[in-house]
Structures are given as structure tokens and as C-alpha cells.
Amino acid sequence: MIALGCDHAGLELKNAIKLHLDERNIEYKDYGTYTPDSADYAVYAEKTAKAVTSGECELGLLFCGTGVGISIAANKVKGIRACCCSDKFSAEMTRLHNNANILCLGGRVVTVEKAIELVDVFLDTEFSGEERHMRRIAQVTDLEDRF
Ligand code: RB5
Hints:
Elements: E1 2-6, H1 11-23, E2 28-30, H2 41-53, E3 59-64, H3 68-74, E4 82-84, H4 88-96, E5 102-106, H5 112-124, H6 131-146
Parallel strand pairs: 1-2, 1-3, 3-5, 4-5
The protein binds D-ribose (RB5).
Residues 7, 9, 41, 64-66, 68-69 line the site of D-ribose.
């Protein structure tokens, strides 16, 4: 199960990705926003991030104008490792090395075709589980606990 969320600037891209997930028979829950009315990205980052940290959803996809604001907000939620990517290599590496659990995309940055490519590689790549990456992620979690 994949958690989806966006603000108004990410709505169109989120809707396009929903069609793609339908085609791939990938289940998702959409935590809003649902209309083009101006919306605050932190609200939808929180709803989507909580769905991931609670275990209700395995991974999340967030969309705003740049992907940046919504990633900053999602990363404030304990246990979230959200990455904003616009290239395929980073979208793959962030699963392999960082065990990222949310991918953030900019509706004003990437095309639908590029977004589909990034979403596919993100969803289809597993964390490597290598010791050095586990150690580094543990250090990041430690930062989260201390600050
Ligand atoms: C909304 O205009 C825009 O600022 C927002 O979607 C996002 O790009 C912020 O990072």
C-alpha cells in the first residue's frame, strides 16, 4: 500500500501518478489535497508521513510545486526519510542506500513521463541492507532522537 499526498501545485502530477499506479495494479491511499484550491503542503506531508510511520502504508509519494517544501515538512516526522528527486539515479540510490520511505516530486519541475520513471524505480528498488548503510541510517535516526 502506497500513501499519496500533495498540495495544489502537486495535484495534477499526483493524479497522473494515480493513473499509473492503477495501470500497475498498485494499491494506494490518497491523503489529499483533492482540489486545486490553494493548500498548505505541511498538512498533507503530515497525513501522508503518519500513514507510513504507522505501518498503514509501506512507502509514500508526495507532490508539491518543487517537491522541496513537502519533503522538508515530511522529514520533521520521526521515522521519515523523505527525498526530493528529479533524476533516476538519485531515486534509485535513495532506496538502496538511504532506505528512503517517501519520494517527493515537483509538479512544476518534472514532466509526467519523468515522474513515472522516478516513481517506478523508487517503488521497485529495495534497501540494500548493507552494514555501512544501516550504520549511517542509525546515525541519522540518532540525530532525530537528540535534536
Ligand atoms: C506553492 O506555490 C509552492 O510554494 C509549493 O507547492 C512548494 O513548491 C513549496 O516548496
